[in-house]
Amino acid sequence: MVLRKTLSELVATVAQMRERLRQLWKFAKIEELQEKLRAHEVNMSAACFWDRPEESRKTLAEVSRLNDVIKPLLGAKQSLDDLEMYVAFLQENGCDEAGEDFAAVGELCDAFAIRLDAVELQSFLCGPHDRCNAIVSIHSGAGGTEACDWAEMVLRMYLRWAELRKFSAEIEDLQPGEEAGISRVTFRLVGENAYGYAKAERGVHRLVRISPFDANRRRHTSFCAVDVIAEIDDDVAVDIREEDLRVDVYRSSGKGGQHVNKTESAVRLTHLPTGIVVACQNERSQIKNRATAMRILRARIYERMQDEKRSAMERFYGEKGEIGWGNQIRSYVFQPYQLVKDLRTGVETGNVQAVMDGALDEFVNGWLRAGCPTARLCSSQT
Length: 382
Description:
- By secondary structure, this protein is of the alpha+beta class.
- The chain has eleven helices and eleven strands.
- Strand 2 (168-176) and strand 3 form a beta hairpin.
- Helix 3 (53-92) packs antiparallel against helix 4 and helix 10 packs across helix 11 (373-379).
- The protein starts with 6 loop residues before the first helix and ends with a helix.
- 32% of the residues are buried.
């Protein structure tokens, strides 16, 4: 609870939240979205709406998306209107700032501030594919065995974060390190707005610690790269010609079972024009692995196409650069002190263990706010 000693402080806080909501309303273009929603509702009421099931399905999905944006903001507006009415009542009746009425309105103000923060973050997930599932890849970088161990630690961190976020995680391909850890891994995050949140983690992650693999107990620095792309829908046009693909099949690695390591069920696809390589060995069936690999390949090619259209490669593939010094987005220091700091936003915490156990929302939310111009404007009002 935020303590406010005077009525004027309470009035100023409510005025700031009104401005934040106004900016958010403008950013989300609520009036335009409401017009689109009304047009869809008229279309849905037509007798012939279900004559084209595929188009009907897309319309229903769009209506659901519009409601997800509009309803929280409409609810927030109504709650703020009520809060302003309570504050006006206190002003008109000369309230006792030590009395129960003032304390009750202050608690309502605190609760609304938390609600407004949540609505803001939800509204910042406005990208065309933010609602999609995410395909996350982790690659070990400079540091040898240390880097492979670090990549495995990062994988565990994201799996814990997925549990906290109620996302399901499915490992599609994993290449163990030569001595310890993993060389690379690709996994899917399945859940509402999985890509919208996970894209904040794209970049190089740096670890500083005393190495458990060094008999002299020296301090080492390790790196790994995290790449995140959206799992696009099948109706997104991505032209992949069969002659542009090289398909390799091989036996799956890892522990496996009675079947998975005894047949050539793993699939590796190479897209020759772009050089993009995708592998999948999660399923026992070669057909299923190929289908999954094609889905990931389509997503990677689409992401590359979007990069070229924007002419801003640093936002995606180019952002990470070399997996080594000078390119990290976040530093995790275990020794000589404990600190996790995001170098893009300045968000930091000394609770390293909590971060490694999946407490990433502080960093993800900070990036979402910093990465959106209107988010920065809204935050400046707090």
